Amino acid sequence: ADLYKGLLRLNLGNTYVWLGQPDRSLSYSREALAIFRKIGRGTWEANALMNLGNAYLRQKDLDNAWNTLQEALQVARRSGEYRVYGRSLLNLGMAGLEMKKKEAIPYLEEAVEWYRQDKEIYPAIEREVVLQEALRLLNQLAQQVGDSQQQERYGRMYADAAAAAPHSFSELRASPCFAIYMARPMPVRQAAASAAQ
Question: Residue 36: which H helix or E strand, with range?
Fold first, then answer.
């Protein structure tokens, strides 16, 4: 019973992040986290921590987001929850960019390698999106910290990735899958129009 109670709260926490209601998300995700810790389910604990980190990102509570996502990454590594592992790396990069943290660069570099090597955990569209997003974020972070050499390097890598598939950037972002991946579901009319194409 505890497992199902925890999963229900985990899913509600995730749903409210997507709906842009982080306060409600935090309440459900904290309850889920407490349950999963009590019953010793590390994979679901990592998922609950990811929900919490994402809700803090939505609230612009960047210190809590950074610390919680680091914890999510550690628990995901320990428990073998590879989907949370990859997303934690990327989300730490996003938080780090907002916070102007040089420490975010190794997380994003690891995310690029992780998603490049994966052939099983993530769907192809997610791998493509993450590679583009991570390279773009790395370029911006290098600019923020004044590392022109790294900025140029990541700018070149991003340009090479875009040149290999020149329309992929716009196609990926026009896809309903991308809107879901970024936890920003597109309006119903727009989704219907995209599906009809």
Answer: helix 22-39
pLDDT of residue 70: 97
Q: In whole angstroms, what is the distance from residue 156 CA to residue 130 CA?
A: 17
Q: Find, among 44, 39, 42, the residue nearest to 14 by Cα.
A: 44
Determine contact, residues 9/35, Cβ cutoff 8 Å.
Answer: yes
Rounded-to-integer distance, Cα 71 and Cα 59, Å: 18
CA atoms 5, 7, 12, 17: torsion sign: positive
Burial, 68: exposed, middle or buried (Cβ in 10 Å; 0-12, 13-18, 19+)?
buried
Q: What is the pLDDT of residues 121-132, one digit of tens each?
A: 777 777 777 788
Full-model pTM: 0.80
pLDDT tens readout for residues 79-94? 999 889 988 999 999 8
- Residue located via tokens 């994402």: 54
State the angle between helix axes of 42-59 and 22-39 in degrees (0 to 180), rounded to the nearest 10.
Answer: 160
Residues 3 and 37: beta-carbon distance below 8 Å:
no
